Amino acid sequence: MKSKLITEWPNKAANRAMLRAIGYKNNDFNKFQVGIASTWSNITPCNNHINVLAKAVEYGVNSNLCKGIIFNTITVSDGISNGNLGMKYSLLSRDIISNSIEVVGKAQNIDGIISIGGCDKNIPGCIIGMCNLDIPSIFIYGGTILPGKNRTDIVSVFESLGKFYNKNISEKQLLNIEKYSIIGSGSCSGMYTANSMAIASECLGISLPNSSIQNAQSVNKIINCINSGNLIKILLNNNITIRKIINKESIVNSIKVISLLGGSTNCFIHLLAIAKCLKINLSLKDLQFETNNLPTISDLKPSGNFFISDLINTGGIQKFLKFLIDINLINGDLLTITGNTLKENLKFIKINYQSKILKNINNPIKKTNQIKILFGNLSINGCISKISGKEGEIFFGKTLVFNSEEESINYIYKKKIKNNTIIIIRYEGPKGGPGMREMLTPSSALIGVGVKNSVALITDGRFSGGSHGFVVGHVSPEAYVGGVISLINKNDLVVIDTINNFINLLLSKKELKKRLNSIKIVNKIVFGILNLYKKYSICSSKGALLDYE
Predict the structure, then answer these.
(1) Could you give the CA distance from residue 106 to residue 99 in angstroms, rounded to a whole number?
(2) CATH class of the domain defined by 31-146+188-346
(3) What is the pTM of this model?
(4) What UniProt keywords are attached to this protein's entry (predicted)?
(5) pLDDT value, residue 466
(6) Confidence at 390, pLDDT banded by 50, 70, 90
């Protein structure tokens, strides 16, 4: 036991005295010490119920002759920080969460860990923290929120703001949407980043089967927490650590499932970050190869009609995963936290996954994947698009260039944008932002003002899982380091081809070189921890982590 460094008698009497003050009894010192990392916060509905879940986990841990120790880490609400300077801290919070879990785990010499995450960066932050500890570990998703009145959610509010500025709805209508769209606890209710990453965590093998598709405020979620607490003893007895479970094949499994379900582009950056942390050789080119020929089979929001709660009511994703294993699309022979393989976990599941939400893979909603990885002279390291197909698959147009998200939003709300315009929002990458903000507000504004099908958006920032339209993000190299996106002028011609997977600025090499020689980099002055991220973050094509080496 690692924890003997703080519990062994008599050498650690002083340590034990501290622990007695927080309620330890004599027999607690001989048990496995299990950290329970709670991302509880009262600043967002995604996380304001998680301490209840943490207590359920503690009950499960303690019931199985281990000792649970609850500690907290931070969260940042993406929904609240979107569209303002607060979003600069969102992706950075992933590193802070992972660092804090690693610090507490190492400092307290815990034997195992169970972490609970809700909002978007909690999940990868928890997973990366567990990877760095490399002890027996389980991840628990806080669960999804239910849709609001008239089947609305957070994205409904963002898009309604564009409708209001375009005078399509009244101030009273906007206020009603604001009041009744988000009710209760849980993470955003579509196939957005939190739900996408929760499904990814189950496919990685580090969450209990079917636990990623549960309502936040449900009996099933409480049972999931208790069962996870019970299970950690088996992992501890067999020394099954997270690095024995997550590998290149399990990450590929996850990215394939997310792609088929039309999930969030943020999953790519997070899974690349997890791979980087574990020193797994994985690139955007690899992910392009694995996902390029997959169809889109789900009718889930943001581009579809259904919420995760609807998917729960049709039985979740267990039947779908069993089907994917049976047709050899994902590898079912990988170890999971149950001690069994993914395939063994599903052996009693009968296959009939098809429903109004998940279509027949041979008769999909779209024959190609919504998520496309593109390369070209505009992004030699690669970028990620999410195209539902309703907007077309090839876009050609003249550029309209902005050096910040705020500039673009002011323009979209106040000006009439011509058809076949490609909006460029740059200096929003990991270093240039700094922080790599999500562009949910401008993408939602374009939908709200009614130009979704005639305008494209390209950025070196990110997109929310709730963004949809003809959007391309994660452009690398970013503008701040002299990427080609920094050389674009107004009315330049750009082509985005999601059939052949390229994105090009239509300028000669001579003209590009000329512009490169006269480039003036926009340097946004920042202080404190943002300055640290600006200096030490790696590019988005490698996960946008802080570089600790």
Answers:
(1) 10
(2) alpha beta
(3) 0.95
(4) Iron, Iron-sulfur, Lyase, Metal-binding
(5) 72
(6) low
